[in-house]
Give the backbone structure.
Amino acid sequence: MNFDKELDARGLNCPLPILRAKKALADVGSGQVLKILSTDPGSVKDFAAFAKQTGNELLSTAEAGGEFTFFMKKK
Amino acid sequence: MDTKKMAIIATKGTLDWAYPPFILASTAAALGYETQIFFTFYGLQLVRKDTSGLKVSPLGNPGMPMKMPFGPKWFKDINWNMPNAIQSLVPGYETVATTLMKQTIKNTGVATIPELRELCQEAEVKFIACQMTVELFGFEHSDFIDGLEYGGAATFFEFAGETDICLFI
């Protein structure tokens, strides 16, 4: 999937992936896509909840070998 | 849609209990909440310039696992809980427990308290220190970080009365 910015939040624990994502989203324009890498298993539910509450769209969530990849489209 | 609001009263002054107010406030701010924390009694320790006084005490806290943050897995898995009578007699027990906790925090990628506090301030979480307890405990305003406001119960209610979420921690 195409993306405009990548955030490496691997090794970080709650709530840092969300806080870093919020900051990274501020650097992209409306409709642009942020790719997020995380190793925090809690971030799966957290990014879904973040998207729901902020209006940004979680395009996809994937897991491979204990790593999570999210694509989020800015509102 | 109106901006949602959250108010927290932070009353605990230990390293472990420093986390919930700052985690919730920074996350609320990231979700678009207007957020305020009112620091009172021991919670004032969380807004001092020097946070090295924040410690954990396993004494009288049976819920706290005491595990080593280093060594092979079998060693890390051992729970070293000691009877209260021993904990209370060993000098420096809290300091040791705090050092181990800080190492565990680092190993697990959990943010430090100064880091979370700064993230809150960057996200414009408003910090209010209880002026009455500042005086009660003999603190000076110069003991605290910049950006604090000082007020009392009425100041808290002015904002808390309009919130969607209001927590006492």
